[in-house]
Design a protein that fits this description.
This protein is mostly helical. 76% of the residues lie in helices and 0% in strands. It contains 23 helices and no strands. The chain has helices spanning 5-33, 35-43, 48-62, 65-77, 83-96, 98-108, 117-127, 133-158, 166-173, 180-197, 200-212, 218-231, 234-240, 245-267, 269-284, 313-338, 342-352, 377-407, 413-444, 450-485, 492-517, 524-553, 559-589. α3 (48-62) crosses α5, α5 (83-96) crosses α14 and α6 runs parallel beside α11 (200-212). The protein is elongated, with a radius of gyration of 31 Å. The protein starts with a helix and ends in a 7-residue tail after the last helix.
């Protein structure tokens, strides 16, 4: 029986089904956890021990060390976690990812889970149509779980039968008998395979199939898995490229941890693998290193090798157990040694990636978000919140500039300088609104919980209102510019009233900044203050409008002066409205839907 192109395409389809199942399962769990996941990562990193435990638990839950590491990079990027805290979580994530290998190992040969996949789908699919979002997400998890093992079963079905296709066996055996060279070749193969698949679990599954089919020995399978430990760092590296320096340092710390541990084990590869084999033999009854590669081997055992070629289910079970044991022992030993050098790790990473210069607030830049950090949509919300806080602070400085501009004479050199800065900040504000909006839209395209979608909608409203504040501040500057061009000077009593209005607006701005800074849990007292400030601004605007008409009629000052006076007061009142709109956007961002 020849291996056809259709069989090869079917094999690719099976691998795609496996990877898609992992993606759906991971995203389903992330959506179930949602806020709790963010809170756990934000709080449970007080020390190295809790940080490690957090990394283990989170990675075991979402079934992906790459996803959990990207989350950590995201939190460091958002300023919610220090570099030292992130190292502990990453150490734990490497241990937590072994849970996936044990699940695949346990169900791959001992139990044909794919036989029960249809039954699980019968449970999972109806859950998608339930009203409660938690049940929908659990349904997604079950469906992903089914697809994962259906894909694994199909991979086993469509991999080439080496006995029927000896030319493929000859191709592989060219690289399996080179001693140390074979170990290095398959080690590099594991790195490349994991980088391409961006999943160490996928590499494990493929390695398990290769070993069970008799393509490679157990020892070479361990070499592939060891290489996969380095290859899995590619995802957080890609995620950190558009992040800030702290995010890039976190990704570098992950690379150092994995590379250093893998290289050390590679140097003692044979004794270490034999240790794993002995542990497997003690637990499972069969040392996978002792399993022969072919029936021609003098040590061939009919209970381990099928006469037709390939391993028996008993031998496959031992190999699966050993391949799951290898990364567990490796990562556990790596963790127990490296955790004591966390501070040294941080120093080394900071030495490798030093800070070049401080952020220039006068130039356009985003501090916390970037296109490369979109792997975990539910958690990217935190970055957006931090970036919005930076955005609002920049616009707050515009209000200070606009207020200063009112008091500066036209001929003063500071007037031109301040107006130019105000104009530049307005341009920066426009660009920040666009970039944050694009980021939020990309996040919204991901798999979000209903609460997450509600927050995205709220944040889009918030950035629009903040941009309106920036436009209002620039309009104040333009009004002052026109006032000077028309050679209009304000009476001291008028300036006092303008100062009174802008003092209220400044207080409202400070209150709004405090609320945006604590967007996750704004204080009720600050929300109430926001409404009170807006009412005060409206009342003062109404009083000044009436007094302005009275003063013009009584010739206290000219009509043109009154026009410019009310233009400034009107712009100030609009600023108060925009600020209240921002506060309401924050207030309603976490409003629960009734159906949830």
């Amino acid at each position: 029986m020849s291996y056809t192109v259709i069989d090869f395409i079917s094999l690719l389809g099976a691998i795609c089904l496996f990877l898609y199942g992992m993606k759906v399962m991971s995203e389903g769990l992330q959506k179930v956890a949602g806020d709790r996941l963010r809170n756990i990562l934000g709080i449970m990193t007080k020390n190295r021990v809790t940080g490690v435990l957090t990394g283990i638990v989170i990675t075991a839950l979402i079934q992906s060390s790459s996803a959990s590491t990207v989350m950590v990079v995201s939190f460091v990027n958002a300023g919610l976690m220090s570099l030292g805290q992130s190292m502990a979580v990453i150490f734990g994530a490497n241990v937590g990812t072994t849970v996936t290998t044990w699940i695949i190992s346990a169900f791959s040969f001992e139990v044909s889970i794919s036989d029960y996949s249809i039954l699980l789908l019968a449970v999972g699919v109806p859950m998608l149509f339930m009203k409660k979002s938690t049940y929908k997400s659990l349904g997604e998890f079950l469906i992903g779980f089914c697809f994962l093992f259906m894909g694994l079963d199909l991979i086993s079905k469509y991999v080439p039968d080496l006995r029927s296709n000896p030319e493929m066996l000859a191709f592989i055996t060219e690289y399996t008998s080179l001693g140390v060279g074979s170990i290095l070749i398959f080690f590099v193969f594991g790195i490349v395979l994991t980088m391409v698949a961006q999943s160490s679990a996928a590499t494990f599954a493929i390695t398990l199939i290769m070993c069970s089919q008799g393509w490679i020995s157990f020892m070479l399978g361990c070499a592939i898995i060891l290489g996969g430990n380095i290859g899995t760092t590619i995802t957080p590296i890609l995620a950190s490229l558009s992040g800030n320096l702290a995010a890039r340092r976190t990704a570098m710390g992950h690379v150092l941890f994995n590379v250093l541990g893998s290289v050390i084990v590679l140097c003692i590869f044979e004794p270490f693998t034999r240790l794993v084999g002995e542990i497997t033999g003690a637990c499972n009854g069969i040392n996978p290193i002792d399993i022969p590669m072919s029936v021609e081997d003098n040590m061939a055992d009919s209970t381990l090798l099928n006469p037709a070629g390939g391993l028996t289910s008993k031998a496959q079970s031992a190999v699966a157990f050993g391949l799951a044991m290898f990364p567990t022992v490796f990562n556990a030993c790596n963790l127990l040694v490296m955790i004591w050098f966390t501070n040294l790790y941080v120093k080394i990473v900071c030495w490798i990636m030093p800070a070049k210069h401080k952020d220039n607030e006068e130039e356009f830049s985003l501090k916390f978000i970037g296109r490369g950090m979109l792997s975990a949509s539910e958690l990217n919300i935190t970055q957006a919140q931090k970036e919005i806080a930076v955005y609002s602070e920049r616009v707050g400085r515009m209000l200070t500039m606009a207020t200063e501009l009112i008091h500066l004479p036209e001929k003063d050199s500071r007037y031109t300088e301040t107006f130019n800065r105000l104009e530049k900040y307005e341009e920066i504000s426009d660009r920040m609104e666009v970039e944050i909006g694009k980021f939020l839209n990309h996040v919204a395209e991901g798999r979000l919980s209903p609460q997450g979608k509600l927050r995205i909608a709220g944040m889009l409203r918030i950035i629009s209102e903040i941009e309106s504040i920036a436009d209002g501040c620039y309009n104040v500057g333009r009004t002052v510019n026109r006032q000077h061009q028309n050679h209009v000077d304000f009476d001291p009593s008028v300036m006092k009233e303008i100062d009174e209005m802008f003092s209220l607006v400044g207080a409202a701005m400070n209150n709004m900044l405090e609320i945006v800074k604590e967007m996750e849990s704004p204080e009720d007292s600050l929300i109430i203050q926001a409404y009170n400030k807006e009412r005060e601004i409206n009342n003062l605007r109404n009083n000044l409008r009436d007094s302005n008409i009275f003063n013009i009629n009584n010739l206290k000052y000219g009509y043109q002066e009154g026009i410019f006076f009310m233009d400034l007061i009107g712009e100030a009142e609009k600023l108060g409205d925009y600020m209240l709109n921002v506060v309401e956007g924050v207030k309603h961002q976490f409003q629960e839907k009734n159906e949830d």
